[in-house]
Amino acid sequence: MRTTDYLIIGSGVSGLATALHLQALGKVTILTKGTLKGANDYWDQGGLAAVLTKEDRFKKHIEDTLEAGALHGNRDSIRTMVEHAPKVFRFLESLGLSFKKEPFAEVGHTEKRVWRTSDFTGQDIFVQLLKHVQKSKSIEILENADAVELIERNERCDGAFARFGDKAELEPIIAKQTILATGGLGRLFERSDNPRGAAGDGIALAVNAGLEPQDMEFIQFHPTALALPQDERYFTFSEAFRVFGAKVVDAQGRAFLEDYDKRAELAPRDVLSRIIQLERTNGNVFLDMRYFNPKELKSNFPEVVKRLKPLGFDLTKSMVPIVPVEHFCCGGVPVNLQGETKLPGLSAVGEVAYTGVHGASLLPSNSLLESLVFAEAIGKAMERRHPLDRERVVDSQTPLAAPQVVVEEAHQVKAYALRIAQILSSRVGIVRTPENLRLALKEITEIPARDYRIQRRQLVAYKMIQACIARPESLGCHYMAKDII
Ligand SMILES: Cc1cc2nc3c(=O)[nH]c(=O)nc-3n(C[C@H](O)[C@H](O)[C@H](O)COP(=O)(O)OP(=O)(O)OC[C@H]3O[C@@H](n4cnc5c(N)ncnc54)[C@H](O)[C@@H]3O)c2cc1C
Predict the structure, then answer these.
(1) Residue to mutate, 106, 143, 182, 307, ligand 1, most ligand atoms under 8 Å from C-beta
(2) pTM above 0.90, yes or no
(3) What angle do CA 273, 275, 278 make, to 5 degrees?
(4) What is the architecture of the domain spanning 234-326?
(5) How confident is the model at residue 41 (pLDDT cuts 50, 70, 90)?
(6) How big is the CA angle at 242 (ends 248 and 253), to the nearest 5 degrees?
(7) β-strand 247-250 against 285-288: which pairing, if any?
(8) Taking a C-beta distance cutoff of 8 angstroms, is the pair 11, 39 a contact?
(9) For the CA of 11, the nearest atom of ligand 1
(10) What's the 353 CA to ligand 1 centre distance in angstroms?
(11) Cα-to-centroid distance, 38 and ligand 1 (Å)
(12) Ligand 1 mean position to 426 CA, how many Å?
């Protein structure tokens, strides 16, 4: 039987950062469903929010975060996140990351406080964390390892059963502490900028272990994704483009956002997603950067320019078609400020966790920060309990009966996943109605899910719809149609 001290499920920024904070305490095993490339962070553009200038104040970042989350966030968790940001920043610098000298402005932030290494900051952070993880003697990474069920014994979590590659049987991995770092759930929807692995698995693992997710109705859609998916994934143009002056226009090139909201391009993501979705019923919507100085565009967004070229887009010559896509789940598995869930032995970090910092909608550039702050908090908490964990003997001798799972043909799995995506996108998307939510619940329940991957999707979708139904009023990114934009 495989054994480890710390089992981390997920190899995105959250999982990798947690691993680095735990490496001194014992053996760390990271499971990742696909390959190491399958993390969101490869496409992250925006940056990392942190109060580091003398003009800025923690209080302002706290208020901006609360405001963006429609005052639904937890002030204590937000304060913890904001006040630990400088430490996270120093941690990243100690790993060799070098940030630009000046912070950037970002939609929703009342001060310039978004720090970038390049126009793909998330990717830079991911790559640097990975480099250090791969150098570590106490961390191992197991790729193509799908965590399917948590191991529960004596009312605590003792690791997880995983499916390696195409094998039919599940293998137990016994651990003293298990950490969910499985990311978001965007790929439950038809359109998302999330990577393939982001299907809410961590939520399903937790629910099957008796935990209830929280705030699952708050799904944020990103308004400005390129309307041409690559490998089914959508490329989002970060807020930086709109802050830089990009206009949202119709096919005639007319900027129309001000007709709806005087903040126009600088309105929050939720508002813009609703407007753009509505306007798309009249025809395509575009992002217009044709009047940008080509040199400035290239020097500010070199990586974006490079990535769009092979797709045939020259941003200074043609408008780019855009569409809102699922971007971020503000809810998740509830944890305390040490990242612990209610199930002893199980913690959660990153997008899968519910720390309460995002409230009813995410403030851009706060999510990488949340991941990194709470990864460190888990490290600290585990350090405190290390003497206890070191003494504790976890039974790795008694054979465990692995759960039997049904594995269907890829095309069947794809067809059911598509059905779930259609239901969620048409009924539980940017604009919701009580009738659609009721129908969605019925339709999701009726899907004859046999394959374990479809059962997982069905369960997470069910929890999301249930949460939407439980909140009949609009709040943040949960928008009920009876209200006006
Ligand atoms: C396009 C895009 C741009 C973004 N830009 C920014 C930004 O600029 N600033 C910011 O702060 N935030 C940004 N975000 C949000 C931020 O990237 C995410 O919140 C963050 O990456 C979440 O990190 P994570 O480690 O929790 O999850 P992820 O990075 O998604 O990693 C999850 C990992 O879990 C693995 N996994 C999932 N299920 C299983 C399973 N069953 N078994 C084993 N492994 C599993 C996956 O394979 C993956 O390795 C962006 C997100 C996207 C999609």
Answers:
(1) 182
(2) yes
(3) 105
(4) Alpha-Beta Complex (3.90)
(5) low
(6) 25
(7) antiparallel
(8) yes
(9) 49
(10) 12
(11) 9
(12) 24
Q: Answer yes or no: is the C-beta of 236 below 6 A from any ligand 1 atom.
A: yes
Tokens of 318: 């043609």
pLDDT reported for residue 38:
56
Nearest CA to ligand 1 atom 7: 46
Distance 185 CA to ligand 1 centre (A): 9
Q: Which two tokens stand for residue 350?
A: 């990153």
Integer CA distances (angstroms), 277 to 150, 175, 272, 282, in order: 39, 46, 8, 10
Per-residue pLDDT tens for 368-377? 999 999 999 9
* β-pair type (156-164, 145-153): antiparallel
Does residue 484 carry a pLDDT above 50? no
Helix axis angle for 121-135 and 367-384, nearest 10°, is 30
Dihedral sign, CA of 428, 188, 46, 381? positive
Q: How many Å apart are CA 279 and CA 380, to the nearest integer? A: 48
Give the residues across from 118 on adjacent strands: none
Structure-block tokens of residue 339? 């990242």
Cα-based angle 251, 253, 256 (whole degrees, multiple of 5): 95
Tokens of 134: 């791969």
**Domain spans of the chain?**
2-218+330-391, 234-326, 410-469
Ligand 1 atom at minimal distance to the Cα of residue 456: 41
CATH placement of domain 2-218+330-391 = 3.50.50.60
39, pLDDT greater than 80: no
Q: What pLDDT, on a 0 to 100 scale, did the predictor assign at position 108? A: 94
Does residue 224 have its Cβ closer than 6 Å to ligand 1?
Answer: no
pLDDT at 272 over 90: yes
Catalytic residues, by residue number, are 269
Measured from the CA of 46, which atom of ligand 1 is nearest? 8
